[in-house]
Specification:
Protein name: DUF1203 domain-containing protein
InterPro entries: DUF1203
Radius of gyration: 15 Å
Shape: globular
């Protein structure tokens, strides 16, 4: 199975970069990256030291419902190119991540969530996406549960 690693959509990111409200109705906070552990959820690269970044609450779901988790993310403050594609993106640099399946209704498919070594993410995502009840997979921080990216069938 071919996988696509997907960032937060560009139109949503551009709205945040223009000062648009986050998931809590607040403007994104503007900070300067220290270069350590600030993954941009759009270009799917680490934000370099000294570069402007945004910190905001993001909900990677189309509708409000009990499973629509909201959490903090980082974005490049300046417009950046959307990352992603078929290969594992640079942003996945921790030793492990939570990998969890969601159904077409954007709700967690119980029994799919697990902490997975980074190198095993593609295999686990393919396994989950091979099921009929899983429409997409989220990759989240294993330590803080922050949304990293989405994986779909190509």
């Amino acid at each position: 199975m071919t996988l696509r690693f997907l960032p937060i959509p560009t139109d949503i990111v551009r709205a945040y970069q223009a000062g648009g409200p986050d998931a809590y109705g607040l403007p994104p906070e503007r900070r300067v990256s220290d270069g350590g552990g600030n993954p941009c959820r759009h270009c799917l690269r680490m934000i370099p030291a000294g570069a402007g970044m945004l910190v905001l609450a993001h909900r990677p779901f189309g509708s409000l419902q009990p499973y629509a988790e909201t959490g903090p993310i980082f974005l490049c403050a300046a417009p950046c190119e959307a990352g992603g594609g078929e290969g594992m993106p640079e942003v996945l640099s921790s030793p492990d991540y939570i990998v969890r399946g969601y159904g077409p209704d954007e709700r967690i498919v119980y029994g799919t969530g697990a902490v997975v070594p980074t190198q095993s993410i593609p295999a686990r995502a393919a396994e989950l996406l091979g099921r009929g009840d899983v429409a997409c997979v989220h990759v989240r921080s294993a330590r803080n549960n922050c949304f990293q990216l989405r994986i779909e069938r190509a």
